[in-house]
Prior knowledge:
The complex is a heteropentamer of chains A (about 375), B (about 250), C (about 425), D (about 300) and E (about 240). Chain A is mainly α and about 375 residues long. Chain A has helices spanning about 15-30, 45-70, 80-95, 105-125, 130-150, 150-155, 170-190, 195-205, 205-210, 215-240, 245-250, 255-265, 270-290, 295-310, 315-320, 325-340, and strands spanning about 160, 245. In chain A, strands 1-2 form a two-stranded antiparallel sheet. Chain B has about 250 residues and is of the alpha/beta class. A 6-stranded mixed beta sheet of chain B has the order 6-7-8-3-9-10, with helices on both faces. At the A-D interface, helix 5, helix 12 and helix 14 of A face helix 4, helix 9 and helix 11 of D.
Amino acid sequence: MTVLADVAARPRGSTGRKIGLGLLLVFLVVLPLGTNIEGQTWVTNARLFQFTQMFMLITLASNWNLTGGFTGYVDFGHAVFFGLGAYGTGILMTQQHGIQWPFWAAVLGGAVVAAIFAVLVGFPTLRLKGPYFSIAMLGTFVAMREIIRVTKPVTGGGVGLTLPPYLNRALFYYLTFGLAVLVVSVMWWIRRSEFGSSLIAIREDEVGAEMRGIDTTLHKITAFAIAGFLSGIVGGMWAYQNTFIDPDVVFIESRTVELVMMTMLGGLGTVAGPVVGAATIYWLRDVVWAAFFDWHLIVEGALLIGIVLFVPTGIVGMLGDRSGTSLQRLWGRWLGSRDRPGAGPDPPRAAPPQPQGPQGDAGDEP
Amino acid sequence: MTAIATEPLLEGRSVTKRFGGLIAVNDVDFVVYPREIVGLIGPNGSGKTTLFDCLSRVQPIDGGRVFFKGVEITRLKPHRVAHLGMARTFQVIRVYRKLTVLENLLVSRQWRGESLWNQLRPSHPDTEGQARRLIEFLTLEHLTDSPAGTLSGGQRRLLELGMALMPDPDLILLDEAASGVNPTLVETIKDRIRALNTEQGKAFLVVEHDMRFIADMCSRVYVLNYGEKLAEGTPQEVMANEAVIEAYFGA
Amino acid sequence: GDDSDAGTEGQETTAAPATTAAPATTAAPATTAAGTTAAPAIAGTIRIGAAVSETGKYAREGKDTRQGYNLWADWVNEEYGGVNIGGDRYEVEIVMYDDEGDPDTAANLVEKLITEDQVDFLLGPYSSGLTMSTSAIAEKYGVVMVEGNGASETIFERGFKNIFAVLTPAGNYTQSALKLLSDQGAKTVVVAYEDTAFPTSVANGALKWAEEYGMEVLGVETYPKDVADVSAIMTKFRDMEPDVFVGGGHFNDALLFVRAAKELNFTPDAMVITVGPSNPKFVEEVGTDANYILGPTQWEGTMSWEDNWFGTAEDYYNRYSDKWGEAPTYQAAESTATALALMAAIEQAGTLDMDAVRQALFDLDIMTFYGPINFDDTGKNAAKPMGAIQIQDGVINVVAPVEAAVTDLQFPMAPWTAR
Amino acid sequence: MDQFLQAVINGIMLGGFYAAMMLGFSVIWGVMGVINLAHGEFIMVGAYATWVLNKEFGWEPFYALAVVLPLMFVVGYIIQLVLINRIVDQPHLVSLLVTFGLAIIIANAMKLAYSADPRLTETGFAGAWELGNVTVPVTKTVILGVALVIMGSLWAFLHRTKTGKSIRAAAQNKQAARIVGIDIKKIYALTFGICIAITGAAGTLISPTQAVFPFMGPPLTLRAFAITALAGLGSIPGALMGGMVLGLVESLIGIYVSGIGTNLAIVSAFVLLVVVLVTRPQGLFGGLRPMEEAQPL
Amino acid sequence: MTASTAPALLEVRDLYAGYLDFDILRGVDLEVHPGEIVCVIGPNGAGKSTVFRAIYGLIKVRKGLVRFDGGEITNFAPQDVLRSGIAIVPQLRSVFPQMTVLENLEMGMFLEKDRARIRERIDVIFGLFPRLAERARQRIGTMSGGEQRMLEIGRALLLEPKLIMMDEPSAGLAPSITRMIFDHIERLNAEIGLTILMIEQNARQGLETSHRGYVLELGQNTYTGTGQELIDNPEVRRAFLGAR
Lengths: 366, 251, 419, 297, 244
Ligand SMILES: Nc1ncnc2c1ncn2[C@@H]1O[C@H](COP(=O)(O)OP(=O)(O)OP(=O)(O)O)[C@@H](O)[C@H]1O
Ligand SMILES: Nc1ncnc2c1ncn2[C@@H]1O[C@H](COP(=O)(O)OP(=O)(O)OP(=O)(O)O)[C@@H](O)[C@H]1O
Ligand SMILES: [Mg+2]
Ligand SMILES: [Mg+2]
């Protein structure tokens, strides 16, 4: 659905939106201070933990979006970078290997491992097209899980590794928050740069892009390595925060699936999409859970389908990013749909608001 | 046109391309000199597009050698060829459908091997200005921010042309760039090509089924038939050639 | 308890807490409790938190765990008259959430239980993995967590001071069975296990005990989670002609092993499958092929343990069956025992003070319907032996240890075709 | 030698099952570009239907196909008509969301209906044939046979009948299919119905050999996904060979590598997959959509 | 050519259609009488192809009316439009790339049951385009742009429709083929009275072949008249035929 939303090409935030964003950031910065206020039960460590998880998801989804959304290489094994980051960190931090680096160094180490792996695995797999790439990455992911399992002396095999427990929620909150802000800014920057446009060009027509002078291999590998590195950092943080890792809690297929879902729900190939999508799904689950007990997963599934059917362009796509504030736009579209046809002085000449009609590009190849 | 003195800009020596048993391009020699507009014509399926594909290196070349600006490009990667200063359009349109018209042009700016680091900045205002002027020329102003996927067939073809002009190449391969374009606009395009040719010295290799286009623009023409070079010469010579008339223009 | 999971990787693994505050226990008015048992007036409520899978890969065992906890809570409030703290009676309330089998969710829920719901104590989740991540949270806040469903030894190697487990740890799972078999003359063993935390602990234990009882290990094989086919392993083992096969990890693997052994006509003298046989569902699904299969058990209704609260193991069995309409699995029994151990410690401490209760847990030495409970200084229950059962004509009979056995071992196993 | 033969037999049995299991997934993807994440769940539903017939009515599981096939066809047809047809015009990733939602709903609804307890059906086709020192399990032989019949019929349908050809045509160019008069929505509903019927049948086939429970789906979907790539989208000979190759590799490595053989088999299956993809991007046997035309998802 | 007084074969009244929220077409009127060749010209992006798509049910008609052969076919599904007797040659590629030339033609006869007739019609098309006959077993996806175009036109002719709508039939074809196609169009028109509605950028040749023409601009038709009238109209000449 949301491939469309990236039309919101060159974001021009309105002032209102900028102020809103600023307020949100300020709120998120001061939020942990609330844990020190006696007697209130809203801003608890558990709440901070939830935010931490959400920031991690936002970061991961944004990274996924760099390859999956911008470059069009839908990576079904992205969690492998997360996993390598987690294991890198875990191995570097645990005494049993006689290394025991400090946390920050170990996280960076893990992320570098993930990035290097991204480059190595990217060379063969990024030559594959469409679904074949997806499957190859899924294969890489599953294979890596088993490799971790059988290299017992280093990774602890199926038993896993125990990290020194250090559970400072506020610290993790700020770490993940900072990382999320950083990553989203990086994505925003990339999208505005020529590098970002080139990635999208590769997605749209790789052969054409190559012939028009884009070194596609270099671009793809670079994007892959950036995404791998950043997801590796998240993996490392997660490992530290979870205090123990084994192949089955680290390498979970559904972790990747969720990233895809979140990104798509928010808006594939947009900067804001993964953020909105991740936050929405996280929040939705909280609400749905509270209201439906036994049925909550069923309701969640139904909601997912409902959203896709009724908001096929993704949330960001629906809100539109091209002109005016979102509400205005929604309102305008609603009005527009009522007194058609013939609205507006010269609509045929005006740029249609969004790329594809319900019929897609009529007359094109499938 | 007395081009004999100069070095050829593009030169192919017995270029051959096979698809299984089918020989799509068979032992073809050709040259394009700087500041020249050369035509390439031939019946459908005679190997014109395939030859372009070989030049821009999407298709591996099975035999022969190709030189561009004195550099052998027979085995080069497509983007390297582009960096050398060769651009092309496509018969089957290849615009980036989800990028806007403006972005399509910006992203076609050629980097000539510029480092990735430099690309991590937004486009230079000059580049954007250049893109907007092109859009204006192509009469696509009202569509500047529309995704290319929403353009009509003819509009896409125009955009395609713009994308080839954008990187400021030395040689431009046009594959039926005027088909499906409104005749009035075709005249404008011809003027533009002539201007680029005379003022900036750009060379063109043009595939076109519109004979008026060929006759008006080209100084020399190659004719392909079943992958082989059937004739070459000035447009007038070629159009008078019996074999060409039989193979191409019909009785 | 163990990690035998009935389901497999659910897709729904991310954070989504699901609440099911135990229905009967949500702050029942004091009068109702008093009405039924004429107990002394209620002085207050002890809030106990637990994150237990309702959905996801541990949905099946999670249900047993919940039912075990709730049985205890209802019993305390409605029959026992409340927890006795220095003569005052306290009602209990269990706040339970669904962790969906996901470590992140479980950790978050436990943190929520501690900081938002402000529970007094914690009961454990189902499975070693989830116990790993939640016990770290409990440790951080210094809140006592008593558990009965995380058997993996790594849990107790972290030096935590707030985790107590009533169950026999994984390494000892096969001890009774192997001892019995070696007494019967078995000389050689092969072992296959799923390469995840809990089965690995069990298998390492099995290797240790096999050596201890003088048996030769002919082959060891691992297999990954969600395995679809174990024919290769069984083919290899068949050619080794071992006396004893030890295998397993999950309930499904148990089914796969039995089916594959039968298909390939692999007939060792005994098959010990570490998870599954003690579950009545196993017999129900596998039918006559289940006969002769041995399995370890934490607890069976036929065992001879007894206490002052629930009576004999059989009494507990009946009480549970009446209440929930199905027979208790050992996961259910150990969950009840977990709660019981916590209660006993609180009563001994005579206060709700965390430090005092923790100390009381370390000092605890009681007998229950589930077996003896006495925690060592890592929090493991050092006192309880593991039992072994054999399926005999579709009935699950305890065959070891000798003091708890109800029948003799049937040995060697009959060929597959002669059943 | 015996061990080798046994390994080969095991591998072929496993491969036959893999092939039957992933076929529906592969064709749906090949024709409609829909990656059906609820694939494993449909297998599960078919397996439960079989289990009910087996336990409640004492049916032989394999005869349950007579009920499962039409039942699942109708289910698939309706789902396509009311749900997926609404989004086929959207880029293909959209279908992921819908089928993912579907998977969650089906699995959890099954859990509410039948609890999370694992189930197994009892077949009369049990036991094994002994050929020298090699054992050939009867149940799996029957499974392989039924799987082959299903595959053969589907192949004949797609390549020999007009409806089948129109399904392939729709896979290649939706727009063109419409203008030659093919009713795309109907074709899609038909395809989905047929594929879900086959998928449900796979559930029937595995019910005697594997535990059936609500959350069994995802690993199956994952497998189907992998074999599809090996086989080429929608290619039926490819499905058979891809399944066999994977089955044999897993079986041989499982037997000849000691200790971690079965783990390693999984790794090598995926390594093989990546190698095949990189060297032969269109899969081993081509497919309904070749690589150049493969849609960016 | 005199405008016939017989009822129109195809009649489009006040047509509104477009993509997403925008109407590209804003009140298009068209009439095609039996036995006529009608040509639509106009600048790029005027909405010519959109008219075709709307008539053919490929996009939704939002307002207005499409009548064909006495019955209303507004918003019919494509297969129903085809059944009622209209065939279309779209502007952009519309072949089944993985199928052979022959299979593609067979698919073109999807609605035809009679096998003998299918064979017979395909042979006629092969006679028309020998190149296709030569390559009957080649996958169409590997053939040149022009060859694919031949196939599309051949496929539309297969069913002997009452009306055939061609979106730039000559685009990308060699002069000999273009001439052959226009000749063929005229011959079919003359011999069996096939009615043709086409869009041409090769406007001069298109209009010369046609009885009548329409000029479409900004989603509305601005000029209409016989082919020659339009060619002679200075406005039209300047704007659409290329200054000459
Ligand atoms: N990938 C391929 N595989 C097999 N044959 C091919 C392939 N690509 C092109 N051909 C064949 O090569 C020949 C030359 O094709 P090409 O596209 O170069 O023709 P062209 O001269 O550009 O024709 P047109 O004017 O119709 O565009 C054609 O007969 C075509 O069928
Ligand atoms: N799928 C689409 N989504 C949105 N807008 C579209 C789409 N297709 C076409 N348009 C817009 O509709 C207008 C008319 O397009 P159409 O294809 O009908 O033009 P045309 O007259 O056929 O032009 P040409 O001669 O270039 O083929 C154009 O401005 C185009 O931008
Ligand atoms: Mg060509
Ligand atoms: Mg058009």
